[in-house]
Structure formats: structure tokens, C-alpha cells
Amino acid sequence: IPEKLALALYPLGVLAIGVGCRRTLRHTPYPMLVVGLACLALSMTIDTLFHNRVFLEDGLKFIGIVCWFAYFARTASAGMSSRARGDTVSATAFEGEPAKGAPFGTQLAA
Questions:
Q1: Residue 106: pLDDT band by 50, 70, 90 thresholds?
Q2: Per-residue pLDDT tens for 36-65?
Q3: Cys-Cys with 27: which of 64, 91, 93, 107 at CB 3.0–4.6 Å?
Q4: What is the rounded CA–CA span in Å between residue 108 and residue 85?
Q5: Tens of pLDDT along 15-35?
């Protein structure tokens, strides 16, 4: 696979996953995920356009990985905590008290 094609497929994959999981993502600390993905995208852009900016590229990549990890760790922790309490909905743990009886990842009426 040509490198340019592979680089073009990354944002399309992220967009497809984001659209497909938008209901669940709304109930998580998604700004942290967005910052992480933006840092990784900037890292790829700098790598493609400026080949001699290794420190900046690697620094952005590191920040992106840390944000990405923090997002998944926090989301997983909230999900496990709400399951341990016996709640059915764990994706809404960031919005306060989860509703009982709704399936995981559903959008709840306010």
C-alpha cells in the first residue's frame, strides 16, 4: 500500500469510528480524546511536511498517546465503577448519576 494512501485512510477511519460511536462518545470525556487525536494528527503532518522536526513530532506524538491513554483509562474506570455499584449504564458515569435499566451506551433523555 502506498504511504500516501495509508496516511489518507487514517482520518477516514477515525471519522467512521467517531460517527459510528457518537452516542457512546457523547457520554465520555471525549475532549481528551479529541486533543490526543489532534496531537497525533499534527505529529503525522509535521512528519510528512517537515522531515527535520523530530523533537516537535515526537513530543506531539507522546502527548497524543498520553491523552489517548488517559481517555481510555478514565472511561474504563468509570464503566467498571458503575458496574460494581450495580448500575446498568456505565457510559453516563461522567454526567452524574446513571439511570437504572437503560442499556450501555444509550442516550438518555434529560
A1: very low
A2: 999 999 998 888 888 788 888 999 999 999
A3: 91
A4: 19
A5: 898 899 888 888 888 899 999
Provide the strand spans (E) within 22-65. Answer: none
Closest CA to 107 of 96, 91, 93: 91
Distance CA 25, CA 100 (A): 19
Q: All 3 cell numbers of residue 100?
A: 437504572
Query: What pTM did the predictor assign?
Result: 0.66
Give the residue from 3, 73, 7, 79 showing the smallest Cα distance to 40: 7
Distance between CA 28 and CA 7 in Å, rounded?
Answer: 27
- Scanning the structure block, which residue is given the C-alpha cell 464503566? 79
Q: What is the DSSP letter of 94?
A: G
